[in-house]
Amino acid sequence: MTDATVWTIIAALGLGTYLSRFAFLGLIGDRPLPPWLLRHLRYTGVAVLPGLVAPLLVWPEATGGELDPLRLLAAAVALGVGVWRKDVVVAAVAGALVMGLGSWLLA
Amino acid sequence: MGRTPFGRGVAQGLPFLLIMMPFGALFGVVATEAGLSLTQVMVFSSIVIAGASQFAAVQLMVDGVPTAIVVLSALAVNLRMVMYSAALAPHLGPAPAWQRALMAYLLVDQVYALAQSAYDTQTDWAVADKVAYLFGVALPVFPGWVGATYLGAALGARIPESWSLDFAVPLAFIALVGPMLRTRAHVVAAFVSVTVALAFAWIPWNLGLILAALAAMAAGAEMERRA
């Protein structure tokens, strides 16, 4: 992998990523979007993030793709605490605690 | 702090350093081990600011995949940003063009998720308040991400594997999802997203995720229409 190749990839990825973030925000501006589209867009967060996370959780690279009960438990705790407390950081800390404590006990 | 929308954004963005920093440090370690120079790693994290796609790109570079495929695959991971951009456009569309250009640059997962939740609950905010909140959230998050990348690249593989830093990535996203599950339609959308993403994980270039997102948005919207 030459330096020029690496720089090309970084530049293209930087530009492409910026354009995907700019797409609607920059170009549509305050023109109103149709109600059916807005109804779909209200679910963007819950439609993207769970799908992004599920494969990482079911086939974690760090375990060579083996299902890891501890990771699943920590994830379940983080999700449950998040639903219950409605607080992202409390949820993340709860999940990290379970993961840390579990790794320590199983070590 | 906490009173103005900007102060509130900073206060709510700040704790994200706890989860952004392991993620960024991990990228610094992995990219350095893949053979990228410190300058390349830093520029990468500063202009792309999208962890998942950065990991995907470095992995494919190590595997010796052609340049165009590396870029397209990593961009496919970031297609979700188009949806973020569309979801925030009704709130931020009336803001001045330079502000929208800058906000687009800062629109990472965490910033999007916090902004969307805040806009849904603070219905009395004017456009300027919404803009201020978004910049407030980004203020700690962005330098935290870049700084952590530097630490990871500089400290390298000295971070012990037993810390399971890799778990920071899924954990950060799961923690974001919990508070979003406000209605039955949101729960159904999340469930569809997980199911379709797992069923279509074999599709190359991460397009399974895009399918999952579209199916989940349709499911959520349909539930809402029937309610």
TrEMBL record, chain A:
Domain of life: Bacteria
InterPro entries with a match to the protein in the record: Brnchd-chn_aa_trnsp_AzlD (IPR008407)
Organism: Jannaschia seohaensis
Keyword annotations from UniProtKB, A to Z: Membrane, Transmembrane, Transmembrane helix
Listed transmembrane segments: 6-28, 88-106
Name used for this protein in its record: Branched-chain amino acid transport protein
From TrEMBL, chain B:
Main subcellular location of this protein, as a coarse class: membrane
Membrane topology of this protein: Multi-pass membrane protein
Pfam families: AzlC
Record keywords: Cell membrane, Membrane, Transmembrane, Transmembrane helix, Transport
UniProt keyword Transport present: yes
Gene Ontology CC terms: plasma membrane
Domain of life assignment: Bacteria
Gene Ontology biological process terms, A to Z: L-valine transmembrane transport
Location of the protein in the cell: Cell membrane
Stretches that traverse the bilayer: 12-31, 131-151, 163-181, 187-216
InterPro entries: Brnchd-chn_aa_trnsp_permease
Residue stretches in coiled coil: none
Family to which this protein belongs: Belongs to the AzlC family.
Protein name per UniProt: Predicted branched-chain amino acid permease (Azaleucine resistance)
Organism: Jannaschia seohaensis
